[in-house]
Amino acid sequence: MLVGIATAAIATVAAARLRGAGLHRLLGGSIGTAAGALLGLLFAYVLSLSVVLNGPTLQFFRTAIPFLTAYIGLLVGVAKSDLIDLGFLGVAAERAGSVSAKLLDTSVLIDGRIADIAESGFLEGKLLIPQFVLNELQFVADSADSAKRNRGRRGLDVVQRLQKMPGLDLSVTTQEFPNVREVDLKLIEAGKLLGAKIVTNDFNLNKLAQVQGVSVLNINELANSLKPIVLPGETMRVFILKEGKEYNQGVAYLDDGTMVVVDNARRLISKTIDITVTSVLQTTAGKMIFGKYDERIHIGAAEQRGATASAGSSAN
After folding, report:
1. Residues near 240 by beta carbon (within 8 Å), at least 6 away in sequence
2. Whether residues 221 and 126 fall in one domain
3. What stretch of H or E contains 275?
4. CA of 166: how far to CAs of 120, 162, 218, in Å?
5. Are residues 220 and 243 in the same domain?
6. Which of 9, 44, 85, 301 might form a disulfide with 274, Cβ 3.0–4.6 angstroms?
């Protein structure tokens, strides 16, 4: 009974591993198992000719040795599978040290920027969309709420756009985790099983995956890292859109969405002014720029622009 339970447990774990294994690992494991079993049978045959062992002891070793060498061959074959060239099968083999696969979650597909990143060629390796993510997108697209419905449809449109991109290695994985209900937890389990990174812009999923040892690529962090660097003391020209929370503050936004909080600018709402940057705050939600309005700087900048325009007119 114990042997049966152990065999069933090993078979279940092996089945789960095989579902996420690549072709080169399956081939390497098969070759290693066959070679190990063959060597074990040869050794068992040589052992049967020995006069030292006989009876039940000899029969035990003749049976156990092939299984042991087959298992050792399986481990060695999987470990060295990256050395196998699958070119003769018309398949590009995954090499050791190659870029790992990337799992796309629901939020990043609805966001849509992943398509532009993939189109630019900055995404390498295999992109995987789990079937349960597609199911969630379909559920959102069928929602009675028009806003949710539009978000779901946009996510499905992004999937179709990714599928049509030439040279992009994209596939849908049918990996399921029936014992896990939440999609975020399923993504983390899939990342562990497949050794893949999760691409998301969900802050909570980002933190939860990192705690459980799964690598995450956050689109929002990428966008923040690409924003232009602004140093304290620099001047910049902004449009004051609304008043701030504190006294005499105005709020402006850059083209990339960065919030700019300006002191002494509350009375200048709906006007474009020149400000001096005082500090830059980097948060998990993005970058915030703090500045102050100095009327002398504003007048000086206006005079300089006027002088430049006059010089240009005189030259013409």
Report:
1. 250, 251, 252, 262, 265, 268, 269, 270, 271, 272, 273
2. yes
3. strand 272-283
4. 12, 9, 24
5. no
6. 301
Q: List, as one string, the DSSP characters of 155-203.
A: HHHHHHHHHTSTT--EEEE----TT--SHHHHHHHHHHHHT-EEEE--H
Q: Which amino acid type is present at position 254?
A: L
What is the C-alpha to C-alpha distance for residues 50 and 35, in angstroms, rounded to an integer?
A: 23
Domain boundary residue among 225, 245, 274?
A: 225
Structure tokens at 90: 């018309």
Residue span of the structural domain in which 9 resides: 2-83
Does 53 share its domain with 163?
no
In a domain, 149, yes or no: yes
Tell me, yes or no, whether 220 and 244 share the same domain. no
Kindly state whether residues 26 and 131 are assigned to the same domain.
no
C-alpha 270: how far from chain center: 40
C-alpha to C-alpha distances, 315 to 20, 290, 307, 312, nearest whole angstrom? 70, 39, 12, 5
In-domain check, residue 59: yes
Structure-token pair, residue 168:
């992009």
Local confidence pLDDT in tens for the 316 residues of the chain: 776 677 677 767 666 665 555 666 777 778 888 888 888 888 878 777 765 656 777 777 778 888 888 888 888 877 776 666 555 454 444 443 445 789 999 999 999 899 988 888 888 888 999 999 999 999 999 989 998 899 999 999 999 999 999 888 888 888 888 888 888 899 998 888 888 899 999 888 888 988 988 899 988 888 777 777 788 888 889 999 998 888 889 999 987 778 899 998 888 899 999 999 999 887 666 678 999 987 766 555 555 655 555 555 555 5
Q: What six digits make up the tokens of 106?
A: 């629901």
What value, to the nearest 5°, has the Cα angle with vertex 296 and ends 294 and 297? 70
Q: What CATH number is attached to the domain comprising 302? A: 2.40.50
Give the C-alpha separation, 222 to 130, whole Å.
23
| Element of type H or E holding 262 | strand 259-263
